[in-house]
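Forwarding these from the shared drive since the link keeps breaking.
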Amino acid sequence: MEKYTIIISLDAVDEKDFQILKDMPNFKYLIQNGSYSSNVESVYPSLTYPAHTTIVTGNYPKNHGIINNTLLQPKRKSPDWYWYRKDIKGITLYDLAKKNGLKTASLLWPVTAKANIDYNMPEIFPNRLWQNQIFTSLCSGSKLFQLLVNKKFGNLRKGLAQPFLDNFVMASALYLIEKKRPNLFLIHLTDVDHFKHNYGCNSNKVLDALKRHDLRLGKIINLLKKINILHKTTLIALGDHGHLNTQYVIKLNKLFLEKGFISLNNNGEIKDWDVFLNSCDGSAYIYLKNDNDNALKEKVIEDLKIFSKENNNCINRILSAEEASSFGADEKCFLMLEAKKGYYFINSTKGNLVEKTDKDFYKANHGYCPKIKGYKTIFIVSGPKTKKNYELKEMRLIDEAPTIAKILELNLGQVDGLPLNEIFI
């Protein structure tokens, strides 16, 4: 019998959102017919790209290699992101599915550029002056498929603006389900993430985005019923990380500039550096060009402590590389910093060291330690093999891939997570 697994990632949907979603008709249906948790611990840093790679590998960022959204590129004003499958260490669910003869599809799933997926529209954007969105996407995914859905549904899009982008993705998803019926389908929706960033977690615009997600879920359920494959389908709705409201941004590269650890050229761009902060939003990595300079290490730690004390103790915690690694983060960093609630880090060397977010900055953000209270995300799975209306009290993001592999009857091998055996009938 043909079997289907559809994974809908609802970027930034967290435990607080779950309290709203569980009373909406389509999410209520999914919950009543499946197993669920609103207490899912994400990874560190709790960002979209590390988290989505964990969802398809079952490993922590330090082990799958996607340790941030962006690459370490101090001299680039706009650093590249971890767009490409080649940057992931080890096997993914979609690799394994393809290897075992299953039909695969992916819509804007992070870190899938140039992946071996049958129908692939990767999440990637042009980051050079000579590039444009259509050409960049076509070169990194399934050309004919992307041309087809852009011709059919491209009128729904307004660039990357929401909710138009998710409406386009949903129209493409419904087309794929009906016409191509992939056995493993990865869908990434960013409506909620967009409006949380720009308006804060408690905005009515976020509530509207949650309502749109319920309608989108309903369209998928209704289509599965219409084409008579709902009983053969495992439907998964999940989040990747939480969100916290923010009031201030911290610019430690500005501090490093003032201390002489960074130098700029005549255009105000970084010419050279000895110490650099690479932001993970609510957390940040500190890298040194020379890892053997112990005097510099001591100086940087002392400067950070003084800066934090003089600025409302805005750095909540300074972690060593060993401590960062114990959380699953990049063991190659010098330090990892955790921002105080209400603060987040950016890479800029311009402006004041600390600025309010009431102008051009995000009103809510992610990237914080996943163990923070009230910062968990969600997981709902409904299918022929899963228990109905069964609540998992707590779980981890790393457990999702081995659980999905078990649903697909595939073996991921040795990974950091464990299958959620208790959800199966």
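-- next protein --
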Amino acid sequence: MNDEVDTKFMALALEEAHAAAARDEVPIGAVLVDYKTGQIIARTGNRTIENADPTAHAEILAIRDGCRAAGAQRIPDCDLYITLEPCAMCAAAISFARIRRVVFAASDPKGGGVLHGGRFFEQPTCHHRPETAHGIMGEESAALLKTFFQARRG
């Protein structure tokens, strides 16, 4: 993909992050795209509180929607755009779903599982390593998260 296309889809993921914040969820958004056609398969934000489900991260929800749409457990023709570096759980789900490419906006030194922490895709036990890119709209995503958590701290 090119920067223009990546920015277009990341902007939609950021819209989902804003919608998550409006629901009082941690503002992380994800957009799943068929890379061959450019068609959006799923777009969502975190719903851990709403669903009373600690696994209801934006990435997981988008992957679930994508797999349902494909009628399969693997979606290798898909790219995933996320506003924050995936955690280890989400990185594992991305690998298991065989997603082709992952693009994330802001890095997450504390909870990330791609560039930080366990670096899931670099482990010998990782069966599928997607192409990764990061930094597209990273400042906007980081600012949204910072504002969200500052408001919670009072």
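The first helix runs from residue 3 to 22. DSSP finds four helices and five strands in the chain.

- D.
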